[in-house]
Amino acid sequence: MKPRYWIVVASRDHVQRGVVGGFAQANHGKSSPLLRMHPGDWLIYYSSKITMGKSDTCQNFTAIGKLKDDPVYQHDMGDGFAPFRRDVFYQDCREVSILPLIDALSFIKDKGHWGAPFRFGVVEIPEPDFRLIAGQMLSEEQLAKI
User: Fold this and answer.
1) Considering the domain boundaries, does residue 90 fall inside one?
2) Is pLDDT above 90 for 1?
3) pLDDT at 29 (0 to 100)
4) DSSP states of 2-61 as a string?
């Protein structure tokens, strides 16, 4: 099965927790976005904010990884919050600003309102857009292995 490519939106601080833990969460822990993804799919995290609930602007692609061959599962974080997760092989990467890439990304149809595709939390993107972003985040050696 050919891999699909996804952008998941989350604050940078939440993305970093996922990278350290080797997991992905989407849409405040909902299962449905993760169930649409398959082992071998690639995801890139976009962070509009540095910290959830604050107005500290980030506007960077903050992590990139490949989904493991594991099912979606719940993780009890306490206080009645048990978000759904998927395990991810994260790549060492550079954070990259979205701003210089907006005009070249085909999934952003209205360049004047470039943030609109991100409002639903998860967006599937075409492979050329994935490769454009990944090419900025990864080394040439890493990119050649994708």
Assistant:
1) yes
2) no
3) 79
4) ---EEEEE--HHHHHHHHHHTEE--GGG-SHHHHH--TT-EEEEEEEESSTTS--EEEEE
Nearest one of 75, 71, 69 to 21, comparing CA atoms: 75
CATH number of the structural domain spanning residue 64: 3.10.590.10
Residue 28, pLDDT > 90, answer no
The one-letter amino acid code at 11 reads: S
Could you report the per-residue pLDDT of 94-107, keeping only the tens digit for each? 999 999 999 999 99
Beta strand 5-9 with 122-125: parallel, antiparallel or unpaired?
antiparallel
Alpha-carbon 12 to chain mean position: 11
For the chain, first and last CA: distance in Å?
14
Domain of residue 34 covers: 5-104+119-144
Q: Which residue has the tokens 């609109």?
A: 116
Whether 40 contacts 77, CB under 8 Å? no
Q: Is residue 110 part of a domain?
A: no
